[in-house]
Amino acid sequence: MKQDELQSKAQTNQTADAAVSKRIEPTRVEERPSFTLAGISVVTTNEAELSGQGKIGNLFAQFHSTDIGGQLGIQTQRNGFYSCYFNYEQGDGGQYEVMVGVHVREPLQDPYPDSVKTFTVPAAKYAVFVTERGPIIEMVQRAWADIWQWSQQPGNDRAFTGDFEYYGPDIDPNNGQAEIYIALR
Predict the structure, then answer these.
(1) CB contact at 8 A, 37 and 103
(2) Euclidean distance between the first and final Cα of the chain, in Å?
């Protein structure tokens, strides 16, 4: 092998080793009061999502194509939208429900459309992770892979009561950034 090929291979190995050894840590930990989301949801598993049989992508597409956020209009408390994970059966190893929705005011002013349901995210202490900037779907998937690694480390005890992603009102799908909130015990 030529010297420049050896150097290139060594640099590639160093980069790969650095990526493996890099540990993600929350940007911050914060207490959040309970709040209510209204949106649409599905039940899925991580196994289904990773196998290509997932439902989350279609849920996001349905949320945006039917303009659920726009239908809830004046009832919206905070601009932007959320993806919330709740009703976990076995932590991240079993079924859970995913809702894509908006933060709504209390009390309800008008009835929701038939397809819309609500979930009250419980008050909790959250580890907050901020994704890298880039294609938002890829960045969120990468962050979740890192969060699963982080949650296996001693002292990182997830509550599985209601984790959520927050997407700002002007999110750019091609160069965006999101916050992921993980409920802690």
Answers:
(1) yes
(2) 53
How far is residue 97 from each of residues 6, 119, 156, measured CA to CA in Å? Answer: 49, 10, 22
Which of 158, 117, 106, 120 shows the shortest CA–CA distance to 34? 120
Instruction: Return the number of other C-beta atoms located less than 10 Å from residue 146's C-beta.
Output: 17
Tokens 């809702």 -> residue: 99
Per-residue model confidence as pLDDT tens digits over 114-163? 889 999 999 999 999 999 999 999 999 999 999 999 999 999 999 999 99
For residue 32, give both structure tokens: 């959040």
Q: What angle do CA 57, 32, 38 make, to 5 degrees?
A: 40
pTM for the model: 0.84
**Rounded (10°) CA dihedral 117, 123, 126, 132:** 30
Beta bridge partners of 120: 36
Name the token pair of 55.
């439902």
Q: Residue 10 contacts by C-beta under 8 Å, 6 or more apart in sequence?
A: none
